[in-house]
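Margin note: ligand = nicotinamide-adenine-dinucleotide.
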Amino acid sequence: MTTQANADNLLLPVGADSEGFASSHAFAVGVDTLDEICVGGVWAQGAGALIESVNPATSEVFATLHGATVEDVDVAVAAGLAAIEESGWARKLPHERAAVLYRIGATIEANADRIATLQTQDTGKTLKETRALAMSAAATFRFTASALETMEDTLTPPRGDYLSISTYEPIGVVAAITPWNSPIASDAQKVAPALAAGNAVVIKPPVWAPWVSLLLARICDEAGLPAGLLSVLPGPGRTVGDALARHRDVGKVSFTGGTSTGRQLGRIAADKIMPITLELGGKSPTIVFSDADLDQAVAGVLYGIFSSSGQSCIAGSRVFIQRDIYDAVLARLVEGAKALRLGPGTDAATQVAPLVAHAHRDFVEKMVDDARRAGAQILCGGARPIEPELQQGAYYLPTIIAGVSNSDLICQEEVFGPVAVVLPFEDEADLISQANDSVFGLACGIWTSDYRRAWRVARAVAAGTIWINTYKQFSIATPFSGIKESGLGTEKGRDGIRSYMRQKSIYVDLSGAPLPWASA
Ligand code: NAD
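Resulting structure:
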C-alpha cells in the first residue's frame, strides 16, 4: 500500500512549493503569546466570549482566548476602509502590492514549523499535513503575487470611433469566513487574492481553530502589510460571522464551510445584492473500474477518504466498485483500513489522527450508529479505538460501510469523518446515474486504465474537480469550485484575483464628432 507516499503530495501545489524559497527572506514572528485579537490594526485582548482551545489528541485545554464582539465588526470594517485610503493600498501599482505578498509568503515559510505545531495542537492533524498546509499557504501568496504582476486589463473591440477598455477595481472590505479543517490554507486562499486585488480583509476564523489566523495576521504585520488592512475576529458564526456578512460596508463574502451555513449567507448576499463565493460540502464518488491498476486504486481510495481523518470537503466518501471486482476490492479496502495507524498528529508514524473535537467525533459516531440501526453492514471500524493511550483523544476508527443503497442517508449526507460507504455498480450508465444522484458536486476520483472511458466518465459526472488515477492532488494554478450544493463561484487560478474585483467598462471618444442630438 502506498498511502504514506501519497501523503507527500497532500495539498502541495504541484511543482510549486517544495523548494526552500525563504532562507534569505526569513522573518521570525517575534510574538510568543497569541491571545490577542486584531481589530482594525490594533492588537488587544478581546471582549467577546471565552474560547477554550482543546488539543483533541489529549483533551487538554492548551490555550484560551477572548473572541471578538459584534461591535468589533464595525471597528474592523471602518478601519479596513480607512486603511485602504490612508495607505493608498488600492492605488498602489501591482508590483508594489505584489512585493508585500511575496514577503508574506516568505514569512509564512520561515514560520512554517510554528504554524504546523499550532495547527496540529488546535485541529489534531498530523504535523506532516499541517506543515504541507503551511507551505501551500506560502505558495499561494507567491503565486498570487506573480499573477498580480502579470495581470492585464482588456481592450475590447470597438464598434465605432472610440476606445473601450474593461478594467477591474477593488471591492473595498471583504469578509473571509473560514472552516476549521485546513485553517492556514483556507485563509491564504482568500486573503492573498483579496489583498492582491486592493481590498481590506476581515477574517472570521472558526471557533474550533482560531489560532493560525491570528498568527497569519502577525505574519502580515511582520511582512509590512499596512495596519488595518487585515483584521481577525474569532467568535461564534451566528453572531460575529452573521454581523460581518450583514455589515453595510462589507462588499463581498468569501465563505468556506458547510452547505447549510452557505445557504444562510447566500440569503444575506441576496438581500444586499452582494457578490459571494461559497465553497461548501461534498459527498464525492471514487470509482474503481474492473480494468484499474488495483494496487494503485486501493491505496488511492484509502487515502482519498481516510487522510485528514476524512475531515476534508473533497473526501472520497462514496466508493463505487464495478460488480465483478466488488468482493475482492472491498476485502482489500477493509484490510487496508484496519492496518492504518491511529495516533497523535505529533507522531511521524500516524496516518489517522484524532478528529478536530470530541463533539465532532460524537457526531460522526452517531451517523454511523444510525446507519447501523438502519441495516447497514459495518465491515470495519464503527467504534472508538480500544488502546489505552488513545482513550483521551477524539479518535474514531477508519470505518467501511456496505450493504447500503445510494439513496440511504449515510450515502447522501456529509459525515466529515473517516467513514466510507461502498457500493457496487454494473456498467458506466449505472455508475453515472448513481454518482450523480447526490445534492453535492465537489469532487470525483476515477480509477481505470482506459483513458477514453476516463474521459467519458469525467465529462458525465457532475463535480467541480475530477481526478483520474489519482486523488487529492492540488495546484494553486488550477481553479477550484463546487457545483450543485457544493458551491458557487471559483477560487484559485490566475483569475482568482478577479473574483475580488469589480469590473468597469470605460469608453473614450476618438473622433470628436457630435452625437446625433448635438445639433438639435
Ligand atoms: P460551518 O459552516 O459550521 O462553519 C464555517 C464558518 O462559518 C465558521 O467560521 C463558522 O463560525 C461560520 N459560521 C457558522 N454559522 C454562521 C452564520 N450563521 N453566519 C456567518 N458565519 C457562520 O463549517 P465547519 O464545520 O467549520 O466546516 C466543515 C464544513 O466545511 C464541511 O461541510 C466541509 O465540507 C466544508 N468545507 C468545504 C470546503 C470547500 O472548499 N468546498 C473546504 C473545507 C471545508
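Residues 177-181, 204, 206-207, 237-238, 241-242, 245, 256-258, 261, 264-265, 279-282, 313, 414, 416, 442, 482, 487 surround nicotinamide-adenine-dinucleotide (CB under 6 Å).
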